[in-house]
Amino acid sequence: MAKGLLYSITYFYMLIFLSLSLPTLSKTNIKDLPGFPGPLPFQLETGYVSVGDLKEDQLFYYFVESERNPKEDPLILWLTGGPGCSAFSAVAYEIGPLDFKMVEYNGSLPQLVLNPYSWTKVSNIIFVDQPSGSGFSYTNGSEDYRTNDHKSAKEAHEFLIKWLIDHPQFLSNPLYIGGSSYAGVILPVVVQEISNDIEARQEPILNLKGYILGNPSTDRKFDTGSFVPHAHGMGLISDELYESAKKNCKGNYYEERNIQCSMDLDSVNELLSGLNKASILEPKCVFVSPKPKPGQRRSLHNNSTNFQLPYVLPAFGCRTYRYLLSHYWANDDSVRNALQVRKGTVGVWERCSSIISYVKDIPSTIHYHLNITSRGYRALIYSGDHDFEVPFVGTLAWIRSLNFPIVDDWRSWSVDGQVAGYTRSYANNLTFVTVKGAGHTAPEYNPKECSAMLQRWISHNRM
User: Fold this and answer.
1) Of these residues, 66, 86, 387, 425, which one is catalytic?
2) Which CATH number fits domain 22-223+360-463: 3.40.50.1820, 3.30.110.30, 3.30.420.10, 3.40.50.620?
3) What's phi and psi for 413, nearest 5 deg?
4) Has 440 been annotated as catalytic?
């Protein structure tokens, strides 16, 4: 017993020593990146912010200044979903200034190109690898990377406060919190905590204006329970099966209440099994998520960047092949040196982490949306309309449950004279937008349309 107590005390003081030995924040201006030809034509900063009770979690970030007017343009903190997917997914595949040149891998470093529809054209964006264990973020504490929704939200909030204290020139910029997918669970909690701080006059006072969410996980009943009516609306299941499921499940497709309901849902799932759930318009391909080789762990003491690929690789041309390029790029030593990744902190970089032990302890964030929007903050909720991971049907359903009056009814919105989707605005500054033909991460599929959507909404223009 005494020996165990001594070990615990020693471990506790070791954590304190590690936390005190590292600065709260470190940062570097990046002028060029391996794989990109010439100097970067935008301002990029990378760094770490220490968060947690003992500053044990080191959250890595990419900060890109607005290419228009960084002193006055909005500041967006962007949270990537997963949970545990790297912020680099947003930087290179969704709303950031970079993209990969889509060529077949030949053993050389994948090449980077510019994204002409980057959201950094009109806004400053902080992309953060969170929670620790995702991307290049790591911990000095327990190596099992245990976390949950509440802790993830708390550390994202702490990250932002510390980052802004170190970057006071952006304190007056309009602040928005943005994210997609599973960030829909974390983000509303972060926004409410910021709002609480503002009401309590907690320094520093942030200039919070609202939030942005794409295909957001929100409530398991609405998110999961919407796939049957969405499948019927898309013409993927028959009228007879839909009517049977509606009758036997009594409209509740989240919980299987009886044998007949279970059989109907099995039939629906069988009909959808051959589809790409993230975007039913695209082919179903192998999902690339390289793992560390047997015996390797991502840890503070293991700096190996060797990784093994899936037995079957996606075909060239598949969207998931683009994800493969990020693994080759981010696991290259020259890239890590350029990004100023701390040596010895991360072994294999994964686009979406497999090492985080994550507890989903927030089943619904609807009440957060109600609280935030009732306080006057703006909200933009958008959905790629061909996503089956979080169908827009469910998103619309929980928005309706807020019982906000409609102020601008359902209508189309256009880009370059073509319908880009549909939109509806509600009281309390809540706007819902569909992106026609887009999948789960809408800007990845329809970058031009989503860029136009953001610019109009940020500028308070009609969609």
Assistant:
1) 387
2) 3.40.50.1820
3) -130, 150
4) yes
